[in-house]
Design a protein that fits this description.
Elements (H helix, E strand, L loop, with lengths): L5 H6 L26 E3 L5 H12 L5 E3 L3 H7 L4 E4 L6 E4 L2
Length: 95
């Protein structure tokens, strides 16, 4: 679950990540947590850690945040959806 802004997400994001921007974050509106953990992430891990703590404080137990955020994801060479500088459209980046 990506808690960055809409423009940040539109420019580049983890494929399949759902967007739930921090200003609109409400832990009670997160998807169900049957047997899966919800992992929150942002650009560096600061916002997602804050939102994970808020979710835990709201009584949700299977919450985590990605240490280092999207920056760490890219640094680890993981694929993501970026913006093509030639077309302006989305493109898969296999870092």
């Amino acid at each position: 679950m990506d808690v960055r802004t809409i423009p940040e997400y539109a420019f580049q994001h983890i494929e399949g990540a759902m967007l739930f921007p921090m200003p609109f974050f409400d832990a009670q509106k997160l998807p169900g947590q049957s047997d899966k953990r919800i992992v929150l992430h942002c650009g560096s891990g600061v916002r997602s850690e804050k939102m994970a703590r808020a979710a835990i404080d709201a009584g949700l137990g299977r919450i985590a945040h990605m240490e280092g955020g999207f920056g760490a994801w890219k640094e680890a060479g993981k694929p993501y959806i970026g913006t093509s500088m030639s077309t302006g459209g989305p493109e898969r980046v296999n870092a």
